[in-house]
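Supplementary Methods S3. Complex input for the nicotinamide-adenine-dinucleotide-bound model.
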Amino acid sequence: MPSLRLANLIDGRLQAPRQDRWLDVFEPATGKVFAHCPDSDADDVAAAVAAAQRAASAWAATSTEQRAHLLHRLADLIEARVDEFAALESRDSGKLLSLARSLDIPRAVSNLRYFAAAVVPWSSESHAMELGAINYTLRQPLGVVGCISPWNLPLYLFTWKIAPALAAGNAVVAKPSEITPCTAALLGELSIEAGFPAGVLNIVQGHGPIVGQAIVEHPGIKAVSFTGSTRTGAQIATAAAPHFKKLSLELGGKNPAIVFADTELSEANLDTIVRSGFANQGEICLCGSRLLVQRAIYDSFRERYLARVRALRVGDPLDTSSDLGALVSQPHFDKVMACIAQARDEGGQVLCGGKAITLPGAHAGGWYVAPTVIEGLAPDAVTNQQEIFGPVVSLIPFEDEAEALAIANGTGYGLAASLWTTNLARAHRFGAQLDFGIVWINCWLLRDLRTPFGGTKQSGLGREGGVEALRFFTEPKNICIRY
Ligand code: NAD
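Predicted complex, serialized as structure tokens:
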């Protein structure tokens, strides 16, 4: 099969990068190149920003109903080709086709539809003053904004950013991950068909430190919404500081799942706890990589948990009987394997997994890692502190609430925690004390697009989702009239 050649979307046209340089895009399931993506540079970004600046005023003046209509049209076009999108996402990222089909692509459609619907009734506040004046707050689009997204949920997170940015009336310069550029490129093509005016949505593909950095540093870009690693988030914050740019940073995590002895350990709950560690090969920022279990049930829980993890099948992402697909890239595979070696070095016992898996035939070159469970490491061990972002879970026993809280809160991250208990008072009390942006009680990954999403500490800055995202992508201006 000839390899795919992706394009940038600039000024309403699909374009090759100005320097005609291209990056290899690998299929994680086989380790082979299957596409080429533009290796763009700062000149491509400048052209995209110029196009966005030309389009911004007219787009801001377009009615919210018309903006919503175009977002719905784009959602319709993606929905009509959902199987093609899902296959492309799976091929590009190594994730299970079934997951791309049931989660990633439907959620991308929902992102577009949700913000299309949310922006129409969104109204500004007004405040009457007793002395005879009225304040009202205009929420004006920022102009041109940057959206930078990662590889783990490619179209899901790409649309999570561009949908509210466009709905709120901004022109966008967006950059998907160079590791998984395909579905955003296809979305770009469909945006032309949907009828978006030229320059309203621009997509510049390429290396993060070149294209991403150019987006962050371009003076014409007023705000940047970024999802990715904490390290890159810090670089972006540094680069954006001299320009006083508005930033939304959704970064890494080291999330705990905390299981109290009173938890109802039904088969369904156990399945959810297992899924919370290993869904998408552990490559979801919300996956729980520290599994805290109350000592009173530790041994029995461990036995049931391990039996389930051992039964997980690593395989071809297209095969419906696979539970885990391939890791996204050779460097990421190497990093995860190095983390497992480090866990052993610091005294952890590998209870299952702990090794790479070589599949037969065409998949022999793919990047597969067995689901891995480790125990015996102190809460402050490197393994329990650093984000691994792979199929690796560390079991940690605890005695009581106080100890569980200290361990759970005892990392530099604060993205998400899941808490398992049937004690209602504990659920509320403990949930309120967890220093995380998101707390799930007796569930995991239930997402309501109306709710604020983001992390504390090194997991980020600001919140996206619902009205928070519309607020981020607009400037509030208060107007006070005396009467
Ligand atoms: P990454 O930081 O390497 O890259 C993310 C994006 O930033 C990519 O598009 C990349 O090209 C770009 N980039 C890289 N260097 C840049 C720079 N100097 N300036 C501007 N842009 C740059 O992250 P990744 O490896 O793609 O993604 C995995 C990370 O993302 C994990 O840490 C994970 O926890 C995090 N993540 C967080 C959330 C969340 O909602 N908090 C969601 C998904 C993933």
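The chain has a mean pLDDT of 97. The chain has two domains: 4-251+459-482, 255-448.
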